[in-house]
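Predict structure. Chain length: 253.
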Amino acid sequence: MENTPRIKTIIIDDEEEGRDVMTHLLSLNSSVEVITTADNAETGIDLIAINKPDLVFLDIQMPRKTGFDVVQELLNLNLHPAIVFVTAFDQFAIQAFKVSAFDFLLKPVDPDELSKTIRRYVAYGSQLEFNTRVNHLLNHIQPPERIRLNTRTGFILIDPKEIVYIHAEGNYSEVFSGNNTMELVTNNIGSLAALLPDEGFFRTSRSFLINLHYLSKFSRITRNCELIKNQEKFSVPISHEQIRELENRVSGL
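Prediction complete.
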C-alpha cells in the first residue's frame, strides 16, 4: 500500500506560544507535516512563496500586517494554499469566514476541533476558487456599500448600485458603470455573480450580467435588453433560455 503524502503546513503567528501550541497539536496528527513557522506576515508570505504549502494556519491580529492582508497578498502573487484562520475574533468576523468558505479555529485551539479541520481539508480541499473566497471575505469585513474587485494592477472599490452590466472576457470581466467607464477586473463572471446582491442582478447569458435597476426595454424578437443610466443607453443580448426567467423576475418588481 502506497504512503499517502503528508499535508505540508505552515504556521504564521506573531506569538511564540501560539506557534508552539499549534506545532505541538499538529505533530500529533500523522497526516500533517509542519514544514516551517513564521512570526510575522511578511516572513510568512515569503515562506509560502518558497515552500508552496498545502495548508496555512494563520493568525489575524499581527503587527504591521493582518491575516487579511496576507490572504490579499497571496491572491496578488497567485498563491492558493488552503487557509485556516486561528483567531480570537468576535462573531461578526467568524460569520465572514463562514460565508467566505474559509475555515477557522478559535483560540485557545481545541484539539478535537483541529482534528475536524484536518478531516475537512482531506475530504474537500480548496474546492472554491481562491480569489472568490478572498473577495467574499474582504467584502464581509469591509463596509458593505462597496465591493472590492481585483484588477491586473491593484483593485477597485465600487458600489454595486453603480454597475450597469458586466461582460465576460475570458477569465476576466468588463464592468460597465456608465459615462464611458469600463473597468477590466480579474474576477470571472461567475465569481462576480456570487458577490453581487441576488435581488438586483440577472444573468442574461453565460457572458452577460445586468443590473435590473437600469433595465428599460426588452425584445423577444431581437433577444435584446436595453439599459438606461443617466440618458446613456446600453444594449445587452439575452439567451433564449433566459427569456422566461427574466420575465418572471421582472414581474415581481
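Summary: The first strand starts at residue 7 and ends at 12.
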